[in-house]
Write a structure and sequence with these properties.
The protein is built from 5 helices and 14 strands. The chain is mainly beta.
Length: 208
């Protein structure tokens, strides 16, 4: 129990609240709205944040609220339409970043303990714990498909885009959808989609 508390305490400062304003003329506005909010996490101390693409899709203004309450301007620097993740950059070089799991996805196993940290807006953050229940394909053909998604019994306690954390305190995935299926409450996009394509995403703004 004490180890879990320490893990959570170490994770919270690296989580953020993301707000995006989208023009009414953008194709996604009719479905997702023009004012969006989500969760995210620092994955680099120089201000790089990972979140889900649907939060910032078409966003011309992005604001990021840190765990300590500071609000910073953000810029969408990459969108991966293959996997559904996005990268947001804020200015600075001394942010508390979370380590990214370096193992292959095969290292994840059904039954592994995980937890989710998510923003709940002005109310701060909430966390939920559970286990991986399956690593099956997922087809969201309106946005992306995954050869391998991470399904967890942990319920997403807030807004989408927050980190799925493994028992070693590493980002294993990015929480995308609330499925509300028994034993499969949340879907996370494997962080391998960021890790394996980082240079390409940062260079071109997307996977080519």
């Amino acid at each position: 129990m004490n180890a879990s508390v320490r893990l959570l305490e170490g994770t919270l400062p690296a989580t953020v609240h993301v707000q995006a304003t989208v023009a009414e003329s953008h194709a996604s506005a009719s479905v997702l709205g023009t004012e969006r909010a989500g969760s995210g996490a620092f994955i680099d101390s120089d201000g790089l944040i990972v979140t889900v693409n649907y939060v910032v899709l078409g966003g011309h203004e992005v604001r990021v609220t840190l765990f300590d309450g500071r609000e910073l301007a953000g810029e969408v620097v990459a969108q991966d339409f293959f996997s559904g993740i996005a990268l947001v950059q804020v200015g600075g070089d001394d942010f508390p970043a979370l380590p990214v799991a370096v193992d292959d996805d095969a290292a994840l196993a059904v039954g592994d303990e995980v937890f989710i940290v998510a923003s709940v807006g002005d109310s701060g953050r909430r966390a939920s714990s559970g286990g991986i229940t399956s690593l099956d394909p997922f087809d969201a053909n309106w946005e992306y498909t995954l050869e391998r998604g991470i399904f967890a019994s942990a319920m997403n306690p807030g807004l989408g885009g927050g980190p799925l954390i493994d028992r070693r305190g590493r980002v294993a995935g990015v929480v995308s959808l609330n499925l509300n299926e028994i034993g499969r409450f949340s879907l996370a996009i494997p962080i391998a989609h960021y890790r394996n394509h980082r240079e390409e995403l940062l260079r071109f703004g997307r996977r080519t």
